[in-house]
Structures are given as structure tokens and as C-alpha cells.
Write a structure and sequence with these properties.
With 329 residues, the protein is α+β, with helices and mostly antiparallel strands. The chain is built from 11 helices and 11 strands. The chain has helices at 3-16, 23-30, 34-46, 76-92, 99-112, 115-127, 142-154, 224-233, 249-253, 292-299, 309-327; strands spanning 51-54, 60-63, 158-163, 169-182, 185-192, 197-202, 206-211, 239-247, 261-264, 278-286, 303-307. A 5-stranded antiparallel beta sheet has the order 6-5-4-3-7. Strand 3 (158-163) and strand 4 form a beta hairpin. The N and C termini lie far apart (78 Å).
Length: 329
């Protein structure tokens, strides 16, 4: 490839990275004079690449917003990062309903990889292991995901058609605060105008999303991720459990994360270390209780069960079984 053509492609790659680049910066990166940069820009414009000229003290050149640039220029490390991201996204279930999109994107990148990079990637994928199985859950529609994201960004109400876990369908107006990825699923949290309260919805259960006129003010307080986790911990289930556990918040959270339980931390007395062990109140809701005794045993901290009484019996039964096994010759 002739050197001038190579420099034109390098200029394209620099502009593709985003933002406005000054003539002096581009000239320095390309090793040419300013007037040569302008000539290269004209060559890109002749190829129908929409390069914009920005005037002013901090002016220079940039690509027109929203332009879908062919060809996509990636370095070896960038291509490897994108392909690994696609693999990880499929494993985690964080894809759209267009499952073939990630596969075709990966195939396009692999086709143009240098052979030595492709071999290194194949070696990595052959030696890479995962601790869980690929997600089998439904994934959100790309159009729904992008519409809701735009509503979040511009504080616009959005109308959604939603199907809950019982199969009931409804149409709601949502003031969406944010989109959250958790445990292989996409969620949107916001204020449900029909009930006047904050709610969290699974994006894969939204069949249609439509932006509405108007705007709203995002509330102060916890961020979207914290709201989603808090919603999980306080969801309506069969059993309400209240415990007092002696330890640090970090020790308790290791077994009872924020998505499972709420933790009431009292202000430590003056002069006491806030990270010191002390009695903390833990509340959670659960459909079943049989998983809790092993968790409390693994926690290995002193605890008191305030409710329900059924949990006391399950913990005592587990203790008896463990003691019986320990006495066996």
C-alpha cells in the first residue's frame, strides 16, 4: 500500500475514534504538514466519508454524528477485545433477540483478522472455561432496549406493553430511571404512573415500547442498580425473615448480598470503628426457607432468628444432622 494511502486510512481511524481532532494533532500523528492533512480530508470526502470541519479556537475535523463507517478499522488488540466481549455476552445472556447479530458480527471480524491473531484467538477460546452454563433465558428486543434507553437519557415517559410472570398482560406508562444488567438479565427501573410507585420490569417481557410526549424529573437518592437490588430483596414472597447477625457488613454481604437481603446498619458509638463487628438486623423475603440454614452455617457468625419460627426448626434439624455425621466413626 502506498504511504499516502496508508496515511489517509490512518486519518480515518483517528477520526473514527471520536471527538474533534485539531489539524496540529492530526499532522503530528501522521507526520505531515497541516496542508497535507487538509488534502487527506478532501480525499475522504471524495470517498463519501462525511468529515466535518469545526471552526474556532478548538476546531479541527470530526466525523458526522451517526455515520455508519465502512470499513470498521480495529487494531489486533481491539478486535480481540470485541470478539471476547461477544463471547462473554452470549454466555451471560446479555444479548438482544437478534441472536444471530452477535454471531454475524463475530464472523465479519474473524474474516479480516490477520492469521496470527486468529490463531491466538482460537487458542484462547479452546483453553477458556466457564463456571456456568450459557444463559437460556429470553432476551430483550433490540428496538425495545434502544427505545427505553433513549427515554432514560432524555427523561421522557415511555409506554410499554408488559407480560408479568403470571402471564398477565398490561399497558403501562413508565418514567424510566435507568437500565440495569443483573445475573444475565436486563431490567428497567422507574416510576409506574398507573400505580404511582417505583417498579422494576424485565426488559425481555416488554413486547413494545413507545416514547410519549413530555418529560419528568429523575428523583434524588439511590441509583438504578441499587433500586433494582432493593426491589429484589423486598419483593413479595411467602416468608418474611428477620435476623440479627453479629459481624461486619462485609462478612454478612458475602453470603446475603443486596439482591437477597436488606441490612440495617446502626451508627457506631463515638470512637468505635464503623467496620468493627456488631449486631446488625437483616431482613429478607423468600418463597422457601430450606436454603437458609446452610447459608447461615456457612456464614459462621453468631445469629438470632427473630422470625419465622419455622426457620428455627430447620436450623436445629441441620445442626442435628451435622452433629450426627460428626459422631460417625
Amino acid at each position: 500500500m502506498p504511504r499516502p494511502t496508508g496515511r489517509v486510512l490512518t486519518l480515518l481511524e483517528l477520526l473514527q475514534s471520536g471527538g474533534t481532532r485539531t489539524v496540529a494533532e492530526l499532522a503530528d500523528r501522521l507526520g505531515v504538514e497541516g496542508r497535507t492533512v487538509r488534502r487527506y480530508v478532501n480525499q475522504l470526502i471524495d470517498l463519501d466519508v462525511p468529515v466535518e470541519s469545526v471552526r474556532g479556537r478548538y476546531g479541527g475535523y470530526r466525523l458526522a454524528p451517526g455515520y455508519r463507517l465502512p470499513p470498521l478499522m480495529l487494531g489486533d488488540d481491539e478486535a480481540l477485545a470485541v470478539l471476547l466481549g461477544l463471547v462473554a455476552g452470549r454466555r451471560a445472556g446479555l444479548t438482544t433477540t437478534e441472536l444471530t447479530a452477535s454471531e454475524t458480527a463475530a464472523a465479519k471480524i474473524r474474516r479480516v483478522l490477520p492469521k496470527h491473531v486468529a490463531r491466538r484467538l482460537d487458542t484462547l477460546l479452546e483453553t477458556l472455561a466457564f463456571t456456568d452454563q450459557p444463559g437460556e433465558s429470553d432476551t430483550p428486543d433490540a428496538g425495545v432496549l434502544l427505545t427505553v434507553a433513549d427515554a432514560v437519557r432524555h427523561h421522557r415517559p415511555v409506554s410499554i406493553r408488559y407480560t408479568d410472570r403470571e402471564g398477565r398482560r398490561s399497558e403501562r406508562t413508565l418514567h424510566a430511571y435507568g437500565i440495569v444488567s443483573h445475573a444475565g438479565r436486563w431490567y428497567v427501573t422507574g416510576r409506574d404512573a398507573s400505580v404511582g410507585a417505583d417498579r422494576t420490569f424485565r426488559l425481555d417481557r416488554i413486547a413494545d415500547a413507545r416514547t410519549l410526549p413530555g418529560s419528568f424529573e429523575a428523583p434524588e437518592g439511590p441509583g438504578p442498580a441499587e433500586r433494582v437490588l432493593s426491589g429484589f430483596a423486598t419483593a413479595e414472597y411467602r416468608h418474611e425473615v428477620t435476623l440479627r447477625i453479629h459481624g461486619t457488613a462485609e462478612q454478612i454481604r458475602a453470603r446475603l448480598p443486596a439482591a437477597v437481603a436488606t441490612l440495617e446498619e446502626h451508627e457506631p458509638a463515638a470512637g468505635r470503628d464503623p467496620a468493627a463487628e456488631r449486631w446488625l438486623r437483616v431482613e429478607l423475603r423468600a418463597e422457601r426457607l430450606d436454603w437458609l440454614p446452610p447459608v447461615l452455617a456457612a456464614l459462621d457468625r453468631p445469629f438470632v432468628i427473630e422470625r419465622p419460627d419455622e426457620l428455627r426448626g430447620l436450623v436445629a434439624a441441620l445442626a442435628d444432622r451435622l452433629a450426627s455425621c460428626a459422631r460417625r466413626a
